Amino acid sequence: MKKHSTSLRVRLPVLVLVLEVLLLALYTAFVTYDNDANAKLQNNETKPMDNALYRDYPYFADIQVMIFIGFGCLLAFFRLYGFSGMVFNFLTATFAIQWAILVQGYFQFSHAGKIHLGVINLINAEFACAVVLISFGAVLGKTSPVQLLVMALLEVPVFSVNEWAVLKYLRINDAGGSILIHLFACYFGLGATFVLYRPRLNEGHAKENTSYQSDILSVMGTLFLWVFWPSFNSALTLKGDDQHRAILHTFIGLSSSTLTAFALSAMLNKNGKITMADIQNVTLAGGVTVGASVDMMISPAAAYALGVMGCTACMLGYKYLSPFLARHLRIQDQCGIHNLHGLTGLISCAAGICAILTATEEVYGPSMYEIFSHRAPMEGDPKLLELQELIPGLQPGLGRSAREQALYQVAAVFSTMGVAALGGILTGFVLKLPYLASPSDDLCFDDELFFNVPPHYDCPMALNGQIKTDDSTAS
Amino acid sequence: MKKHSTSLRVRLPVLVLVLEVLLLALYTAFVTYDNDANAKLQNNETKPMDNALYRDYPYFADIQVMIFIGFGCLLAFFRLYGFSGMVFNFLTATFAIQWAILVQGYFQFSHAGKIHLGVINLINAEFACAVVLISFGAVLGKTSPVQLLVMALLEVPVFSVNEWAVLKYLRINDAGGSILIHLFACYFGLGATFVLYRPRLNEGHAKENTSYQSDILSVMGTLFLWVFWPSFNSALTLKGDDQHRAILHTFIGLSSSTLTAFALSAMLNKNGKITMADIQNVTLAGGVTVGASVDMMISPAAAYALGVMGCTACMLGYKYLSPFLARHLRIQDQCGIHNLHGLTGLISCAAGICAILTATEEVYGPSMYEIFSHRAPMEGDPKLLELQELIPGLQPGLGRSAREQALYQVAAVFSTMGVAALGGILTGFVLKLPYLASPSDDLCFDDELFFNVPPHYDCPMALNGQIKTDDSTAS
Amino acid sequence: MKKHSTSLRVRLPVLVLVLEVLLLALYTAFVTYDNDANAKLQNNETKPMDNALYRDYPYFADIQVMIFIGFGCLLAFFRLYGFSGMVFNFLTATFAIQWAILVQGYFQFSHAGKIHLGVINLINAEFACAVVLISFGAVLGKTSPVQLLVMALLEVPVFSVNEWAVLKYLRINDAGGSILIHLFACYFGLGATFVLYRPRLNEGHAKENTSYQSDILSVMGTLFLWVFWPSFNSALTLKGDDQHRAILHTFIGLSSSTLTAFALSAMLNKNGKITMADIQNVTLAGGVTVGASVDMMISPAAAYALGVMGCTACMLGYKYLSPFLARHLRIQDQCGIHNLHGLTGLISCAAGICAILTATEEVYGPSMYEIFSHRAPMEGDPKLLELQELIPGLQPGLGRSAREQALYQVAAVFSTMGVAALGGILTGFVLKLPYLASPSDDLCFDDELFFNVPPHYDCPMALNGQIKTDDSTAS
């Protein structure tokens, strides 16, 4: 692979041109406005401020910050890979969203052969995008922008099909996306990195380390993700008290996991000092762990406990599991997504199942059948009419029992993990095809390969007066 | 000019004192609260949550982030000019807004001799502020804070008069401000920099370059602008579906222009690598290009195409046009605002005119006469009454035909460009007056001139142990 | 003190474990959902979009950014203390909020022995958290994370009791928290740092200085605080015109204080250059100064004047008062909180009192009795019935006169200052207890003490090729 050129001069423009022609054709043929964005449907009944825009846009904006600034900074933690981490995230995210609007639209938002576009589609597309970026974390530093675009091109459809199938046939509760987003992204990324295994990187790489500035930048990314995570977990819940709980649980879970992360970081280091990598990643574990039960009446204390548990599992994963995976299972998980999204995701699913099994009308009142909509009585069931008097507009459900719903959740977990891992492995083989500008081992974790970097970017001495003349050519 | 002192010790305080006395006097004499901020007008009809605050504030907050953090980081891209880029942006922006509240207030928000102040005025003032900051991009690194305040002092009134005259007499559609904001700011800035021409800078300047850290900081600024641009383009549209479309179009346009920017950046570099300056600037082209038609029913595909076109024009401008302007037309456009705001603005206006010419009731329904309000039938026209039954509260218009409206748009483009260029040139001459602390050529692009910088700020070796003692004096 | 070990390996985990067990027990026993987050209370009357969530969450999110990113970056201004400033802020803030939810909940949000949790509690808890972080500014660089957690553990209850007592018994107007937040935080922090006095630090410390990058990072923090301060000052005002005014006044006050800060910074430096520390701190003075009268009809001009006055006092405080306090009163105020929160807070209180004394029904209309709720007529007073016809749902008040209300404000100022200073001093003594890992004088302002730092983090030469091999051990 090393013999291949890694110049992007032809590869990237050609790929992008093909993709853009494809996207533009599909947008032209199939994408129209949804009712809330369509001028024609405005009449003397439609009140402008009732537009769905005003319910969805604030959450969309928060998620935008997480995707582009949060992830971007977080992935810029390598000393000489800041440009790539931040900017490839930007490139991959923008393409993934454009592509997801079409693929998800086809499966979830199409009526009469047209995809109806509104801000709500953008939110869904950003979730698909988050999936790609999480998987990106597994192969960070070892992939070219061409490979990343190809990965997004393949991952978005696999994700969308799985999401659609699970929601349509298994009918699960997963407000925070622990199953459909975090577990999927994790095992897809592990599958891909398994195929892209580079034995020499196990010996340690001279550039696989951080600098003072890159550590600080990465923590900023963490803080942006931390601050807006409640919006992420609550963006697609039912409005009202459900969304309110989702925000409370996410905030509490993040807080307790952050406190725990500091303690464990100091405890697990022989010298009793804090490691920045732990602060950058493990503090966020709570956000994932509350995901599957985030809109349920689990009580604030349970959210607190979930944060602590998720954080502990995540930290131990970084300490013991990741090295093991790399050494013995050929799985080089660069950012440790298996710890932050896999282990925590599994705990989250387990918690969600417990919450489902223990849910009672006593605690939830009749609106239990809104949150667990598949447990609502079926069409024609007299119980449905009673409930509809208490909760107007309650939809008929499948009349599932708690145990049935729990079993479907389990089915969703395993099928998602399977689909994701398989999709990741196949994608990995595609990424190994020639002409994708895959970097050689020595040039991993180095911006110089794909960027015009300032002279002596790896040696600030360059800024020194003597060789300033070199610099003047850099602008 | 070099002989003049550049100490700010007297100049800046005196100028600021004069400005503040002036501003305070004018605020005292003329500024009062608008109805939604006036306690006295609250009665048992006024519902607190109906306050305009709740419609406007979220957009205001997003634009605040763009102005102070987005622009601030973006303009900090020079290796030794980070303090100045970020902090002069802060200074100029705060003054421009205070000043614009008064000037715009006089022209647009005054009733019975009083300026009525609400958050909506602040949004308008931030647009005026954005104009000044865009023009600032043309003279970045070559101007003192005193000059920047003077520029803001002169540019805000010229902008406000042009905005007021165009809206009152030409009556155009320009939701995203392509004409009134981007074209105006661009040609005003070019006019000013034309007069401030410094021949020696064409030979290249030892400090006119970036560092690894400054490039990353600048990309962060780009990302903040990118993320919140939909709020910028939609802040002043009609509420409801119009604003919804504005957000969709801006997001799609930005996405496609970002993807294109990466491809072109790699393609136009002989070594096939990506240039950070392209990512910092060209990715944003789509946001400007969709501006003039952002609230119209142009279809998502058209927004996509506009993003690609604007990005391409912008990129070619950086590659070929800017060097030409600097060498042959004495126009040193430091940040290339002519590419990012001028060329894209012109494409945007052309697109807006096409959208106007092709607009039909078939596509828009009766609300066409809300979006193109000047095409609504005139008072007394029976058609007006029919329409008002369909769209309550539809205002009578001017009964313009599509072609008439298009011609007015064209008139607005050229008159705005003319007024801006002339105003910029005259401002340039004012900025050349002595005692404005204009930096000498060698001290351009250097924070040391106007800031107490940490010792050896241009040479990180200074942090080394040996000379730490020097540092201890720096706090 | 130097002899004590500063390893966090046992101390931090033990303290955190104890705290988490305590918190989890209390959450389990006492914390439940408030009505707007409780599924059971949803019925066919409750409209989802009427949920308090949609009024409170946007302000909560803005304050989150201020607490975690604004403060975090601002406190990272030391050259070698960026990890600590940013990350200890993160740790302290998360714990303080968890703890404040319980303590404030007990005093303000408990019904029938249960704390009712909603987003509104989180906003209140973030205010308590802001208090701790302001006090943290006084002892920055001289304290261990263990000490900071202990400080938060003690400060939150003292703050909450004072807040509760003042609001319940003195009944004051303090929308922006000038008294309850800024004055309290300031004098608590000064009390603590007075006890933690370190004579040797008065001689200057080799690491007590900034670098080019740390100064820029800190300004970013300032900008985030600046941008979202209007949300901070208006989060707890009455909805509608009151909140509208709070946002306008805060924005105007910040703008005028920023402009003033630049002028004074240049004026007070012999060399006529701008000092970054002034931009980082003094520009924010206006936000505090408008606090106590932020929701009143003081006129925009008054907000402007308050910004200028507060900024001037703050700047002079940094220049002359802080050195005096350190040299003669053993008060080492690391970030100058006495200037930014103390002096400005006092001016704010004085302004608030003037606003109260000059308030008339002529200016406010009947809603004067909503803003100054304690001046509303008492139950049974015929005037109350008249007013309730004009303002439905007006609560009966205490029938206070303006002068009476003013006297209660004065009482609140002095009692708060007294309680805070006393609490701070006592906390200071607790922080001096052994085993809290207090850093030795030479290791103050240095990340190396509590963090695994990249090799040669204080000497970027390390990034140089020759010793890259060392680096490879750092990841």
TrEMBL record, chains A, B, C:
Its primary localisation, in coarse terms, equals membrane
State the membrane topology: Multi-pass membrane protein
Q: Has the keyword DNA damage been applied to this entry?
A: no
Q: List the record's Gene Ontology CC terms alphabetically.
A: plasma membrane
**Which spans are transmembrane here?**
12-33, 59-81, 87-107, 119-140, 146-167, 179-197, 217-236, 248-268, 301-321, 342-360, 406-431
Please give the Gene3D superfamilies that the UniProt record associates with this protein: Ammonium transporter AmtB like domains
| A GO term, aspect molecular function | ammonium channel activity
Name where it's found: Cell membrane
A Gene Ontology biological process term: ammonium homeostasis
Domain named Ammonium transporter AmtB-like is located at: 26-434
Q: Which UniProt keywords apply?
A: Ammonia transport, Cell membrane, Glycoprotein, Membrane, Transmembrane, Transmembrane helix, Transport
The coiled-coil segments of this chain are none
Describe its function. Answer: Functions as an ammonia transporter. May play a role in the elimination of ammonia in the gill.
Give the family per the record. Belongs to the ammonium transporter (TC 2.A.49) family. Rh subfamily.
What's the protein here called?
Answer: Ammonium transporter AmtB-like domain-containing protein
Q: Which organism is it from?
A: Oncorhynchus mykiss (Rainbow trout)
What's the source species' lineage? Eukaryota, Metazoa, Chordata, Craniata, Vertebrata
